[in-house]
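One-letter codes give the sequence; backbone shape is given numerically. An example follows:

. . .
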Amino acid sequence: MGNIVSGLVGREALISKSLIGLNLNQLRHFYSVIQNLLKSLTLTAEEFIEIFKCECFSIWDIDNNGLISPLEVMAGLAMLSNTSARDKFKLLFFMFDFNKEHEITICDLQVILHLSVLSICKIFGYFKDIGTHDITEITRGYDSNSKIDLPEMLEICLKNSNILYFLTICDILRTSNR
């Protein structure tokens, strides 16, 4: 994760500056609009433009199939938001708590972390193969189907040096791209 993250330093964002440095209320609003619009777990270009009011859909649509993951988009925007690390992860936790039982699986946490890194790489045009080794290393010692609640997720994320380094780089990218 460190090699990928350090390769992002100094890059220019490929998305509208208006999507960088959002506050928590703006992120919640976008997610609420997405939830109301979605008929599936994907967004079309038209839906994306309607929600975000910008033409940067293709950044996420690297396979050119006309569909992107709203969770990936939101993970990237959350990482570039002007909110605390705790609030970023709280938002992502609640987005992935699909059944609203106030817990997610370790596999869900791995997906959150993977989508966050993947989305940031796309936003900054850094197309490297993002392996899962570093992410699975973060959750080593947990069964992938183990359930964790928000405090446990925050404990894992906010005490991991790789994640903290990633958050620091995201903050640098946010401030240098506004």
About this structure: DSSP finds nine helices and four strands in the chain. Residues 106-123 form the longest helix (18 residues).
